[in-house]
Amino acid sequence: MTRQTIVVPDIGGAEGAEVVELLVAVGDAIELEQSLIVLESDKASMEIPASHAGVVVELKMAVGDQLSEGDAILILDTSAAYSDGAVASQQEASSNDQSAVSSDTDLVSNQHVDEGGERVAVSADPGATAGRAVLERIVEVPDIGTDGDVEVVELCVSVGDMIGEGDSVVALESDKASMEVPSPAAGEVLELLIAEGASVTQGAALIKLSVREGSLPAATATSATAIAADSTDTAVKPSPTVATANPASEVSAPVVSAQPSSSVSADMSDLYVGPAVRKLAREFGVDLKAVKGSGPKGRIIKEDLHAYVSQRLADPAARAVSVGSGIPEVAEIDFSKFGPVRHEERSRIDKVTATNMSKSWLNVPHVTQFDDADITDLEAFRSSLKAQAEQRGSKLSPVPFIIKAVAIALNANPKLKSSLAEQGDVLVYKDYCHIGMAVDTSNGLVVPVIRDADKKSVWELSDEIRGLAAKAKDKKLKPDEMQGAVFTVSSLGNIGGRGFTPIVNTPEVGILGVSKASTQPAWDGSAFQPRTMLPISLSYDHRVVNGGDAGRFLTYLVALLSDIRQFAMN
Description:
Blueprint: E1 3-7, E2 17-22, E3 29-30, E4 35-40, E5 45-49, E6 54-59, E7 66-67, E8 72-77, H1 84-104, E9 111-113, E10 119-123, E11 134-140, E12 150-155, E13 162-163, E14 168-173, E15 178-182, E16 187-192, E17 199-200, E18 205-211, H2 224-228, H3 266-269, H4 275-284, H5 302-314, H6 316-322, H7 348-363, E19 366-374, H8 376-384, H9 386-391, H10 398-412, E20 419-421, E21 426-428, E22 435-437, E23 439-441, E24 444-446, E25 449-450, H11 458-473, E26 487-491, E27 510-514, E28 518-523, E29 528-541, H12 547-562
Parallel strand pairs: 22-26, 26-27
Antiparallel strand pairs: 1-8, 2-4, 2-7, 3-6, 4-5, 6-8, 9-10, 10-11, 11-18, 12-14, 12-17, 13-16, 14-15, 16-18, 19-29, 20-21, 22-25, 23-24, 27-29, 28-29
């Protein structure tokens, strides 16, 4: 048995990269360049390919371990993987590679292919100093550890940019990794050969580069691990496995300080962020300019991003400010230039209501369903109770009937009185039925809460509604009298309107809008009859309530209001 230990190759200087996934197991037969593990550092997410083929004998690490260059990954049995002919072929290929590298340093030839597979055109420059030339170089997609397509998610340079060796050219994303491709040489960008959003494979041309000062750079390794490293501040290192045929002819690339690309804004060019962190920031919707980096040279690492998000979630004030932060602000206008104006400070209730409604509208996906309830019989019954109401010193409006019907319908459809919790992962069902009632006052809109509405009679509801409304208008409501509702009813009464879309009073998931009743012709099967129709509209949080839930609730509510006898059955 011939054993080969596979170790972590050069991963761009990353120390302590975490093993986030194992792609092979003991006993697996693997091929050359097959992915073994997935590493994630503050610089990149990357897959480590196999440098040999064989059968996995032993795993030397586990998920969660921290690995650096040279650490053992696994042990392979390579005895069955390489025959004498295969070894000979490998040696021949190695000899060919060295010949290609040797030809790279021949500055008198007009064209050659460097070790990384990049096509280079070289022209003699009579005015250049000895050992120097002007060349054009096509930078291609290197070995990225996959045969499939990868997407160009960002162009890091533009035509005319002066870039240094190791500066990022493009950012690529695949189902395996996020990576930035560094430039193998310093020079000027002559042409972009790819567009953002394009799908590319290994060997695809990216840019045409002109090295106007200095000579042809030494060949550099283009393994997936070297490419995956963040190159914003780390140059690609020459591979120790590649040697020139003639050491005396080896020439080094000129030292060019890395300059930010003209296609990158001044603000973003100051950020040191790896591609994995950039991708995570895009998923979170976080502006990286607002995150303070704690890594070397102020690099933003994953922990910084997590800390920033946690802080924003834990700070109610900051969370309120951030809501809708992506929406353009409405410009302030000086209305006095059009005519006389006067300014009046809004009440505290008005401002609180505006904030809560904006928060709900921006965070809750609203849907509104409409229907009409035939309350002809209900109105006739209510009119028949007028004398009894006077004897009780009370008035009987349609509202207590509506509140009672809503309470019955909510108990039959409990999802309409639930709430989301734990960032939306849990649904809280409430076994009580407290209903909020919107009241219009001179000081603003307030919502007193009728507790246990399902357990009270229509008469009790009528008295409580009138009492709470009076306290609201006199500004005598206590805080606990405006808390704990599972659902809200907003009735416009005789103010008017044929329908409206009320905003859900989050964390509730539903609200009923009641408009002005009117006499409408209704077909009874043989003729049109005048009926009193009440327009109602149900707005709900579509994260919790779907169309079926809302339809069943609204249909049942209409049935209750259309046939007052149904009250006696509940």
